[in-house]
Each structure stands twice: as structure tokens, then as C-alpha cells.
């Protein structure tokens, strides 16, 4: 997974968007900081202490380390830790720069004076300087107020725009069809992707169809993410050349990988980011101007206000070049259901306007929290799921799973680890069993993922009833975990086996050495035998050699 | 769940207070106009730091406290109208509404002052105030709490109780966090003894709501009411002008100070080193009649007002004290 939190020390409490920013090269980050809108958004994603620090020095522009230390309350329990995280985040994002003070007057005249300066240099601490463009932008915002590009739709726009419910259903359906494709595995074809969408009752968007398909090659993205595999899965037949080629050069017989199945069960925000992130990396050189513009665009989008619209061109930042690129990104996002594009009926030029959907809000969500509870993934339920009343999963202590849903996606996901008992128009009833879960484990879905999924998508009712108890009964969660543990009863570790030691001392010394390194797997004192992990083999050999020569 | 914080800022606009604030020489002259500009910067900082913050502004003068409906803040405005901000107004204002907030703030405030001081002036006087010197602190205070209470209720309605606070177990701390509310007084007038009960009641009410009450004193005068409010609710009370040396005052910038001290919400505050109280902070109880600080006083058993001498009837609530138990002698604070 690309979202494998490589920068977890910093991003554990921050949003996906900032972990994405951390991955960007410094040049691009600086470019992103050039736009006022982005600065505003980035500031909001910072940890609370970092926000305070930024605003405290936004007029002076710098702070010495001693000054920073003075800001933190000594009696606060985790204050120092949070302080460190805040400063590290600011440095990592390039908002602050650490500058070691120039040693003043090295070429001084008198010896005595030189000594004193040397002393003061030792005491002198680093100062932190704020990124100048960021500082200027923040100052402007403070003095003139926040600028928002988002506006209420006009009367004429309102007449052509979908209602909130329609939009919700539409975007959800867009997104679901992607996941459904993954869940369906081999049977479906991405080529049918767009036609599937038409049939599932989505709003017809005159604009997106061609543009979106051109802008976003989903199959490519999924394959690059290793969620999808070309050719048959490695069961016996892994002849690469055997892949069937269909007329237009498309490859048949894709299968969803283990990662793909895991992906299905992850929280929606993470899913969206994984896809968007990969798309950006694939499409744009992140070192270039385009990459920066794309990121700025995403930042603006994530912090939109609900139900407001905006002209596409005003999102593309200051550079004129950004225009074409922005619309490219916008088409791609529209295809994913993150955006709704429409033409302003009032202007003849046909400039594109953007209406964000509930999914685009997820772009700026914090990593661990889940704003929509289960509802974001709640299937194309439309009004019902947006009001939060009707959809969700109830797990009973007798291993039965009731899922109130009409979404085929949700059913497909549940079928990955449940045994279907019966299906009603709005209800899926399944049973968790060892067999069904084992099938899931084989497909690569872990117990934690299953339990998390059930928990995240729990029916609102379960929250209300069990205000303090877990929404998934503990016995069930434990069984699922135990079943997974059962599949891992035996593990193979390659090892080196040592026998026939010359003396007891040598044996004990080697044993001690292996233990010390934590590489000992097994030992038997009576027969003087021991087994060590294979990766320790070389180290062990040199150690024994040395020990022998020492003893001799 | 996004944290929804709300903050009500109370601005003391009474003429008397400003007369005192300005009276100290030319260098550190500070006018209501300056205050508004600094306040505007602070507002921007608040909104910048957390876009979901809701802000309300209450202006008080000698007679009454009134809420400034800052429509230019859009949905961030803490408003009395239940249906939120009127759509048309919002349209007009937030459409790329840069710099509108300051304008809005100025015109609203000016209008208010005009109405109050230069209007027909025959409005009924609220709050039972004494002539001239004090200001409608208790009225402003209770107005804030009403606003915040309403805000909390609407939050609860929106999200339902305990639902949606995240996967798995309901996060009680999270619930607590969502409903962070604060009141910030920019106060300059002197305390009015007759408001003591109202202010104290409001403070206890704020404590129950979990609202933090902060104070920044504009003049050099201290307000023991607000000191107590801060200590009851766990807020901050600062009196920069009285504490700092005069050379610092020249360099003083209110907006910077507000950002440094009052920008952090109660959660972040725990980690920061902030001015703790005020050097001359006396949380002494004052006699309701003479306004003298008391060590030993008499407490009315009905309204808990305090007097420095034994009375036949309570001067505040009118209870007749038929025996000694009704008016108790109590040690109110111990010295050293």
C-alpha cells in the first residue's frame, strides 16, 4: 500500500493531505506555499500547537530555540512531546527552516575578544525562520480576512444542479462502481465501467464522460497500486505469455490481489487518497509546476464548504498554465465521484464550474477519525444514508450479521467474509463462520480489517444502544482474531543449526551471544545444540571462530 | 467528528471605560477604533486556525449589552436567529468577501453607539445600574451564555447524542472536545456591586456548561468579578497594562497579544505557558453594600449575599432575618 505510513511519526495525528505533502519534493512544496488558498488550508491541517506557533511568529518571522522552549508549559504531561511533533511538522513541511546563527565577527582583533565570542557561540542556539511566502500570505489573511473562492450557486445554476440527495447518490455510485469492480474481481471489465455507471441510475453529466476517461486510466492506477493484477493469479499457472489479448489490446483476466481485497475494507478517506495519490504521481512530475498546481487544487477542494460552487479557473491558482492541468485533474476527480462538473448556464463561454461532493470532504480528513461514520461507504443509499438513519451493519453475539443496505458493493464486500443466509431488498443477512473467515484470510484480508470494517459501518442504532460497549460484540471480534491466529499456528523460519560443540564453554558463549542479539530460536543444553536464525549465520560464524582462537 | 468550537467576545464600549483607558498620556493612547482593528485581526486568526469556529460579538455599554450580528462571517457567525443566517445576506457578504468583516464590524458598532448615545436616549435602562460608571457586565455575560447554550443545543441536535463520535467505543473526551466554548471579555469598566449576584451566578452557570471565561483588561483597573469568573471556569485573566512596565506598553500590540494568549483553545492551552492570573489578584469577597474586601462577613442564607455587618433584612433579596441562623457569620478568606 502506498499509504503505508512511512512518515508515521509525524503524521499519526495529522491528515492524509499533510502526509501527502510530506512526500513531495521540497521545490514543489515551496511552490504550493506560494498560493494563498493553499497556505490557508495547510495551516488548518497542522497540529494545534503548530498552528499557535505559526501565528505567534507570523509577524516577526523568526523565533529562537530558547524562545520556543519558553512557550511550552513545563507542568503539562505530554506537552513536550506535542511540542516536538509541532516543530518537526513545521520543519518537515518547509514552513519553518532551522537556521544556525552566523558566528559574528570571526576576524576580531584581540585575543580576549575572540574568546568571548567563541563562548557565546557555544551557548547560541538555532533560530527558526518562517517561510517568507507563507508568512506574507498569513499576514495578508490576518489583515484582510479569509478569502473564499466558494460561492453560493446562483438561481440559474440551482435550476440545473442536482439536489443534495441526488448528488450524494451520484458521487457514491461513481465511487462504488470502482470498488465493485475490485470486489467483483475477474468477471467484470473496466471497459464496461462507464456503461455500468450509466445503468446504475447516475446523473448524466454531459461533460465528464469522454474527458474523465481520457484523464484517468483507472485500470492503470489500480495495477500500479498492485490492487489489480493482470493475468491469472499465481495458482499453478504463472506463464506470463499466456495472457489473452483482445482486439483493442486490452488485457483480459484481471484479478484482484490480496492488497486489493484489503483495500476494499479500508476507510473511505484512505481509499480515496490512495487512488488520488497514485493518479497524481502517475500523471504529473511532482517536481514540476504542474505537480504543485495539482496539489494546490486538491487542497482547495478538500476545504470547500458544502453546497457551494466555484469556477474551475479560479481554483487553478495564479499561473495561467495551470488551467488545462486543473481541468484534467477535475475530470479525473469527477470520474471518481469527488466532483460534479457543470457549465454555467449564465455565461455563453461555457466555463466549467465545480460542485464538490461529500466525498471530496474526505480528502482533508484526519487520518484516524471518520467523519461520516460508516455512511460514506454506505452504498448508493442517497437520502437515507445521508440522514444517517437507515443503513448499517448489526452484528449479533450469535455470529449473525444483519446489514441494512441496498448497495451491491456492500453485499459484495460482506460476502468476502460472511456466509450469505438470505437477502431481502434492503437487508443482507449473513453468518460469520470459521470457513467464511478462512476464505477471507486466504484472500489476504486480516481479522483486524474485518472487525474494523464491521465497527466502522455499524448501524447507528448500535451506537445509541451501546453507548459505552463496543459496537461489535467482543466475543465475535475475539473469535475472528482467533480464527486468524489458527491459520498462523505454524510458521517457518530459516535457521542455522549448531551441533557438536568442542566444549561446554564454547557452547555457552555462543548461546549467550545468540541470545544477546535476539536471534536464538531453540537450544538444548544436554546435547549442546542450538538453532539460530539464518540471517545471523555469518555473524555467528565469526563469533565462534574468534571464541575458538581465544580459548586455544 | 470535527470539533466545533464557539467563542463569544464581549467588548466593553462604555464611554466611561474608554475615558479611563485613554486618559494616560499620549504615547499609549488607545481608542475604540484601534480596538476594532486589532479585534478584526484576532477574528481572522481564529477563523484561520479552525474554519469551523463560530464567533459571536457582544457589545456592552452602560445601559445594555447587545449582540452584533456579523453577517459577513457567514456560517461562522454565532447568531440568535434559529434558521442560521439569512441566505440572501450571506450571499451578498461571503461572495469573495474580503475585508468585509472589518467594514461590517465598524458599521455595526458605530450604529450601535449612535443609537445608544445620540439617539433619543429614552430607552428603559436595563440591569438596574448606577449612574455612569459601570457597564452592563452581567447582562452581557448572561447573553453570551445564552448564545453558547443555544449553540450547544443545536450541535447536539445535529449530531445526536453520542452518535457519530467515531468508530467503536463512544469517545466521551471527544464529545467534551467538540463542544468547546469560550467567552472573552475585553473589559475596561469598574465593577458594579449590585451586579455581584448576577455575575457570580453566570460564572457558576458557565462552569456547568464547560465554558471557559477569559478576560483581558483594557484599563489599568482590575475587575474582581472577572478574576473570580476566570478562576471558577479555569480561564485566563490578564491585565497587561497594570502589570507591564510603561516602556513595554509603547510597543504593545493588542492583536499580537490576543493571538499569543487567547488564540489557543482550552485543549491546547494546557501545553502552553501563559500568564497565570494577575499579580494583584484578590479573590476576596466584597461586601455588597460597602464594596470593601472582607475577611469575615455575614452571609444571607437565601441569596448568599455578603455583608460586613449584621443586618435585620437582607439588602439584596429582602429576607428578614428572624434569628441568628439566617444570617451566618463566616470566615471568608484566611490571610497568609
UniProtKB/TrEMBL annotation, chain A:
It comes from the Eukaryota. The keyword Cell inner membrane does not apply. GO terms for cellular component: transcription factor TFIIH core complex; transcription factor TFIIH holo complex. The lineage of its organism: Eukaryota, Viridiplantae, Chlorophyta, Chloropicophyceae, Chloropicales. Residues 479-545 form the Transcription factor Tfb2 C-terminal domain. The keyword Transcription regulation applies. GO terms for molecular function: ATPase activator activity; double-stranded DNA binding. This is RNA polymerase II transcription factor B subunit 2. Component of the general transcription and DNA repair factor IIH (TFIIH) core complex which is involved in general and transcription-coupled nucleotide excision repair (NER) of damaged DNA. Belongs to the TFB2 family. Keywords: DNA damage, DNA repair, Nucleus, Transcription, Transcription regulation. InterPro entries: Tfb2_C, TFIIH_p52/Tfb2. GO terms for biological process: nucleotide-excision repair. It holds the Pfam family Tfb2_C. It is found in: Nucleus.
Automatic annotation (TrEMBL), chain B:
Gene3D superfamilies: von Willebrand factor, type A domain. It is found in: Nucleus. It comes from Chloropicon primus. Component of the general transcription and DNA repair factor IIH (TFIIH) core complex, which is involved in general and transcription-coupled nucleotide excision repair (NER) of damaged DNA and, when complexed to CAK, in RNA transcription by RNA polymerase II. In NER, TFIIH acts by opening DNA around the lesion to allow the excision of the damaged oligonucleotide and its replacement by a new DNA fragment. In transcription, TFIIH has an essential role in transcription initiation. Component of the 7-subunit TFIIH core complex composed of XPB, XPD, TFB1/GTF2H1, GTF2H2/P44, TFB4/GTF2H3, TFB2/GTF2H4 and TFB5/GTF2H5, which is active in NER. The core complex associates with the 3-subunit CDK-activating kinase (CAK) module composed of CYCH1/cyclin H1, CDKD and MAT1/At4g30820 to form the 10-subunit holoenzyme (holo-TFIIH) active in transcription. Its main location: nucleus. GO terms for cellular component: transcription factor TFIIH core complex; transcription factor TFIIH holo complex. This is General transcription and DNA repair factor IIH subunit TFB4. Signal peptide: none annotated.
Amino acid at each position: 500500500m502506498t499509504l503505508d505510513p512511512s512518515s508515521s511519526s509525524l503524521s499519526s495525528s495529522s491528515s492524509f493531505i499533510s502526509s501527502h505533502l510530506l512526500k513531495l519534493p521540497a521545490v514543489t512544496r515551496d511552490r504550493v506555499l506560494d498560493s494563498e488558498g493553499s497556505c490557508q488550508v495547510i495551516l488548518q491541517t497542522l497540529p494545534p500547537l503548530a498552528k499557535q506557533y505559526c501565528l505567534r511568529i507570523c509577524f516577526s518571522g523568526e523565533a529562537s530555540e530558547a524562545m520556543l522552549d519558553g512557550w511550552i508549559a513545563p507542568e503539562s504531561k505530554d506537552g513536550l512531546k506535542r511540542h516536538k511533533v509541532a516543530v518537526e511538522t513545521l520543519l518537515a513541511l518547509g514552513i519553518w527552516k532551522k537556521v544556525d546563527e552566523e558566528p559574528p565577527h570571526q576576524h576580531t582583533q584581540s585575543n580576549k575578544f575572540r574568546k568571548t565570542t567563541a563562548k557565546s557561540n557555544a551557548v547560541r542556539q538555532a533560530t527558526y525562520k518562517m517561510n517568507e511566502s507563507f508568512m506574507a500570505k498569513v499576514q495578508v489573511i490576518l489583515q484582510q480576512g479569509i478569502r473564499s473562492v466558494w460561492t453560493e450557486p446562483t438561481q440559474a445554476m440551482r435550476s440545473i444542479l442536482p439536489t443534495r440527495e441526488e448528488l450524494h447518490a451520484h458521487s457514491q455510485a461513481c465511487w462504488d462502481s470502482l470498488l465493485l469492480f475490485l470486489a467483483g474481481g475477474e468477471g467484470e471489465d473496466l471497459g464496461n465501467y462507464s456503461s455500468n455507471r450509466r445503468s446504475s441510475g447516475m446523473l448524466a453529466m454531459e461533460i465528464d464522460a469522454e474527458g474523465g476517461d481520457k484523464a484517468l486510466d483507472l485500470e492503470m492506477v489500480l495495477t500500479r497500486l498492485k490492487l489489480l493484477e493482470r493475468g491469472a493469479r499465481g495458482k499453478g499457472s504463472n506463464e506470463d505469455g499466456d495472457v489473452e489479448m483482445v482486439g483493442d489490446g486490452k488485457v483480459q483476466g484481471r484479478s484482484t490481489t490480496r492488497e486489493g481485497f484489503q483495500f476494499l475494507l479500508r476507510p473511505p478517506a484512505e481509499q480515496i487518497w490512495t487512488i488520488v495519490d497514485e493518479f497524481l504521481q502517475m500523471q504529473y512530475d511532482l517536481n514540476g509546476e504542474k505537480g504543485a498546481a495539482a496539489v494546490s487544487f486538491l487542497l482547495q477542494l478538500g476545504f470547500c464548504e458544502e453546497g457551494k460552487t466555484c469556477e474551475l479557473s479560479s481554483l487553478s491558482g495564479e499561473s495561467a498554465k495551470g488551467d488545462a492541468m486543473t481541468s484534467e485533474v477535475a475530470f479525473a476527480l469527477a470520474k471518481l465521484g469527488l466532483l460534479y462538473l457543470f457549465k454555467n448556464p449564465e455565461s455563453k463561454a461555457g466555463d466549467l464550474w465545480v460542485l464538490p461532493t461529500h466525498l471530496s470532504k474526505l480528502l482533508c480528513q484526519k487520518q484516524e477519525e471518520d467523519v461520516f461514520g460508516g455512511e460514506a461507504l454506505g452504498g448508493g443509499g442517497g437520502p437515507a444514508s445521508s440522514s444517517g438513519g437507515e443503513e448499517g451493519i448489526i452484528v449479533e453475539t450469535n455470529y449473525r450479521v444483519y446489514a441494512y443496505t441496498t448497495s451491491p458493493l456492500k453485499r459484495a464486500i460482506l460476502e468476502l467474509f460472511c456466509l450469505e443466509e438470505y437477502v431481502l431488498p434492503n437487508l443482507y443477512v449473513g453468518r460469520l463462520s470459521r470457513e467464511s473467515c478462512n476464505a477471507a484470510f486466504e484472500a489476504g484480508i486480516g481479522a483486524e480489517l474485518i472487525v474494523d470494517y464491521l465497527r466502522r459501518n455499524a448501524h447507528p442504532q448500535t451506537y445509541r444502544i451501546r453507548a459505552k460497549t463496543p459496537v461489535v460484540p467482543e466475543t465475535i471480534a475475539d473469535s475472528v482474531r482467533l480464527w486468524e491466529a489458527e491459520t498462523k499456528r505454524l510458521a517457518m523460519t530459516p535457521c542455522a543449526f549448531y551441533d557438536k560443540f568442542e566444549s561446554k564453554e564454547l557452547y555457552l558463549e555462543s548461546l549467550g551471544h545468540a541470545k544477546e542479539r535476539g536471534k536464538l530460536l531453540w537450544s538444548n543444553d544436554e546435547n549442546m545444540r542450538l538453532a539460530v536464525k539464518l540471517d545471523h549465520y555469518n555473524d555467528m560464524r565469526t563469533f565462534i571462530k574468534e571464541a575458538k582462537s581465544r580459548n586455544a | 467528528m470535527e470539533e466545533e468550537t464557539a467563542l463569544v467576545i464581549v467588548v466593553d464600549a462604555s464611554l466611561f471605560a474608554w475615558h479611563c483607558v485613554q486618559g494616560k498620556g499620549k504615547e499609549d493612547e488607545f481608542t475604540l477604533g484601534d480596538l476594532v482593528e486589532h479585534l478584526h485581526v484576532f477574528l481572522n486568526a481564529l477563523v484561520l486556525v479552525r474554519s469551523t469556529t463560530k464567533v459571536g460579538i457582544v457589545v456592552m455599554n452602560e445601559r445594555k449589552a447587545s449582540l452584533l450580528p456579523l453577517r459577513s462571517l457567514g456560517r461562522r457567525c454565532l447568531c440568535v436567529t434559529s434558521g442560521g443566517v439569512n441566505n440572501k445576506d450571506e450571499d451578498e457578504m461571503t461572495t469573495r468577501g474580503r475585508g468585509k468583516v472589518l467594514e461590517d464590524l465598524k458599521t455595526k458598532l458605530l450604529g450601535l453607539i449612535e443609537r445608544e448615545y445620540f439617539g433619543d436616549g429614552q430607552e428603559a435602562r436595563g440591569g438596574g445600574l448606577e449612574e455612569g460608571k459601570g457597564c452592563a457586565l452581567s447582562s452581557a455575560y448572561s447573553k453570551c451564555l445564552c448564545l453558547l447554550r443555544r449553540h450547544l443545543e443545536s450541535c447536539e441536535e445535529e449530531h445526536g447524542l453520542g452518535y457519530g463520535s467515531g468508530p467503536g467505543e463512544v469517545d466521551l473526551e471527544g464529545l467534551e472536545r467538540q463542544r468547546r466554548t469560550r467567552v472573552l471579555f475585553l473589559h475596561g469598566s469598574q465593577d458594579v456591586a449590585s451586579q455581584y449576584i448576577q455575575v457570580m451566578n453566570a460564572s457558576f452557570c458557565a462552569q456547568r456548561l464547560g465554558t471557559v471565561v477569559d478576560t483581558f483588561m483594557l484599563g489599568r483597573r482590575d475587575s474582581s468579578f472577572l478574576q473570580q469568573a476566570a478562576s471558577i471556569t479555569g480561564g485566563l485573566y490578564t491585565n497587561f497594562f497594570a502589570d507591564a512596565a510603561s516602556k513595554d506598553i509603547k510597543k504593545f500590540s493588542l492583536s499580537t497579544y490576543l493571538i499569543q494568549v487567547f488564540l489557543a483553545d482550552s485543549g491546547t492551552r494546557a501545553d502552553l505557558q501563559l500568564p497565570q492570573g494577575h499579580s494583584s489578584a484578590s479573590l476576596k469577597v466584597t461586601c455588597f453594600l460597602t464594596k470593601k474586601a472582607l475577611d469575615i462577613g455575614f452571609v444571607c442564607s437565601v441569596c448568599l449575599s455578603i455583608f460586613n455587618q449584621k443586618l435585620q433584612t437582607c439588602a439584596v433579596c429582602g429576607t428578614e432575618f428572624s434569628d441568628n441562623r439566617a444570617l451566618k457569620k463566616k470566615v471568608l478568606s484566611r490571610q497568609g
